[in-house]
Design goal:
The structure is a single chain. By secondary structure, this protein is an alpha/beta fold. The protein has 14 helices and 15 strands. The strands form three sheets. An eight-stranded mixed sheet has the order 4-11-10-9-8-5-7-6, sandwiched between helices. Strands 1-2-3-14 form a four-stranded mixed sheet. Strands 12-13-15 form a three-stranded antiparallel sheet, with helices on one face. Helix 2 runs parallel beside helix 10 and helix 11 packs parallel to helix 14. The longest helix is centred in the C-terminal third of the chain and has 22 residues. It is globular and about 60 Å long. Bound molecules: pyridoxal-5'-phosphate (PLP). The site of pyridoxal-5'-phosphate has 14 residues, from helix 3.
């Protein structure tokens, strides 16, 4: 791709695409939003990195603490992966334990210990390449099925006192869009609290996307540590980890858990993050995003049904997942039943018609504020045309 503007992308041959991928999540305001361009230009004019704290780093941290009630302190880093890595080290340093629980189908960035794990009865994880990860690293991570209360209870009964942390996406973005069910959320909160394990919510995709306060605001549950990235600065490299003061205080220089980064909290990313938060503060913005998400999901279900094609469209806010199966899908084992070849045909059919979808069926469509109902009409007529050639 060569350039983007609003909801559109242009490739090097100047072909135009309606962008439903949204760069895998950051582009809440679409491409090249005027607010962000102004913030980025100003930051570059003033110098893009100082290696020292700045007033923007402080302002952003203060605004995040207000936005996410579960975050009492925040550390800024440069990516979602980095923030996840810091959260895991922090949980281990705080608890003095090593075992981390993750869930099947989760993607938490390219952190060694979260790409590979010892699965209980986990099916092969189709989405991740795992060469180069030492077995010694993998053995301290355990994978459980998502949305499975019994498996969670069983794990904690056996290994609760060894468990440093449970990390999950409260709404998944890499196995279709699956929401952690109320009973699963409540059990997670209860068991991690009871056993003194740290509950980490990876809100790298959902933070500021499904609501200003992320999935926690929508689902009404507080994590001990929250990881943010992507949407936080609307397209500039950033990550953040924040949470309970007693846990965050273990991070250096206050505590003994090491973390550092030349570019962490740099003025370019932080000024763009502040501009993003300003823009996302517009009244009714999240309602508008939700409506566009619902309209697109309903439209795609209707068009697929008219062509007799089984398509499970899951939607939460402006995130959508498309799996070619009947559904419903509550976990990874169900998600991997989807017909991936059909998705590839759909992807290419749509691309030929100027619509860019996520390249894998498991990844989420991420709409932006630049996306309007006019765009939904274009997507639906392209989908109908694509299906009619099958
Ligand atoms: N966590 C989740 C839920 C993600 O979806 C991703 C990226 O896709 C990451 C973490 C890693 O973020 P980054 O790509 O910024 O390192």
């Amino acid at each position: 791709m060569a350039r983007g503007e609003g909801a559109w992308l242009w490739d090097v041959d100047d072909r135009r695409y309606l962008d439903l991928l949204g760069a895998w999540g950051p582009l809440m305001l679409g491409h090249a939003h005027p607010y962000l361009k102004a913030a980025a230009h100003a930051a570059v004019e003033d110098g893009s990195v100082f290696g020292m704290s700045t007033k923007w780093e402080l302002e952003l941290a203060q605004r995040l603490v207000k936005t996410f009630p579960s975050m009492e302190m925040v550390r800024l880093v440069n990516s979602g992966t980095e923030a996840v890595m810091t959260s895991v080290r922090l949980a281990r340093g705080f608890t003095g334990r090593t075992l981390i629980v993750r869930f099947e189908g989760a993607y938490h960035g390219h952190v060694d210990s979260l790409l590979e794990a010892v699965g209980t009865e986990a099916p092969p994880d189709l989405t991740l390449a795992k060469a180069g990860i030492p077995p010694g690293v993998a053995q301290d991570t355990l994978t459980l099925p998502y949305n499975d209360v019994a498996a969670l209870r069983d794990h904690f009964a056996r290994r609760g006192t060894e468990t440093a942390a449970v990390i999950l996406e409260p709404i998944t973005g890499s196995m279709g869009v699956v929401v952690a069910e109320a009973a699963f959320r409540a059990t997670l909160r209860e068991l991690t609290g009871h056993y003194g394990s740290v509950l980490i919510f990876d809100e790298v995709i959902t933070g500021l996307r499904v609501a200003r306060g992320g999935a926690q605001e929508r689902l009404g549950v507080n994590a001990d540590l929250t990881v943010l990235g992507k949407a936080l600065s609307g397209g500039f490299a950033i990550g953040a980890v924040g949470g309970r003061r007693d846990i965050m205080s273990c991070l250096s220089p206050l505590g003994a858990v090491y973390q550092a980064g030349t570019y962490s909290g740099n003025p370019l990313s932080t000024r763009c993050a502040i501009a993003t938060l300003d823009a996302l503060g517009e009244a009714g913005l999240y309602d508008g995003l939700e409506h566009r998400g619902i309209d697109l999901a309903e439209g795609l279900r209707r068009v697929a049904a008219e062509h007799g094609i089984p398509l499970w469209v899951s939607q939460f806010g402006c995130m959508l997942g498309l799996l070619f199966l009947e559904g419903p899908v509550l976990n990874y084992r169900e998600a991997v039943q989807a017909d991936t070849e059909k998705y590839q045909r759909f992807f290419h059919g749509m691309l030929q018609r100027g619509i860019l979808l996520p390249t894998s069926t498991f990844d989420a469509i991420c709409l932006s504020t630049a996306y309007t109902s006019r765009h939904t009409d274009i997507v639906l007529s392209s989908a109908a045309e694509t299906f009619s050639t099958w």
